[in-house]
């Protein structure tokens, strides 16, 4: 297999950005494998609150955290990966996150709430099915790392419970 070049990766990311715009998508994620221990993970997404698209390329083999709401979570330290936190609750599936049972209803949990094992933290809609995500352990909700209505990937950190 030919050796990959930085220029090839840049061209690939630009092509993904064009595909995002041409098809009016909000997010596109691709993993490109070059070999057994060499790959490129790319996530290209468009901010829904802004007119201009945002393009994000991840470092190889890195998992990007889901967008964090400024009101829901304190700012993370630079370089901190919420997925590696021992209290991280990760997404068991790909889908759309809902932090409340229905529009206008109170959120299932807020930062500072005490939760017990099995309490519903949020809902992830996948293939028109609403999946309640239970707390894997009891504790206090320290950070909420997703926004209501946002997309999540499998394994993406949803919140931190300590």
From TrEMBL:
Residues 60-91 are annotated as: Disordered. GO terms for biological process: fatty acid biosynthetic process. InterPro entries: AcCoA_biotinCC, Biotin_BS, Biotin_Carboxyl_Carrier/Decarb, Biotin_lipoyl, Single_hybrid_motif. The keyword Manganese does not apply. Pfam families: Biotin_lipoyl. Residues 60-81 have a biased composition (Low complexity). GO terms for molecular function: acetyl-CoA carboxylase activity. Pathway: Lipid metabolism; fatty acid biosynthesis. The keyword Transmembrane helix does not apply. GO terms for cellular component: acetyl-CoA carboxylase complex. This protein is a component of the acetyl coenzyme A carboxylase complex; first, biotin carboxylase catalyzes the carboxylation of the carrier protein and then the transcarboxylase transfers the carboxyl group to form malonyl-CoA. This is Biotin carboxyl carrier protein of acetyl-CoA carboxylase. It comes from Pelagivirga sediminicola. The lineage of its organism: Bacteria, Pseudomonadati, Pseudomonadota, Alphaproteobacteria, Rhodobacterales.
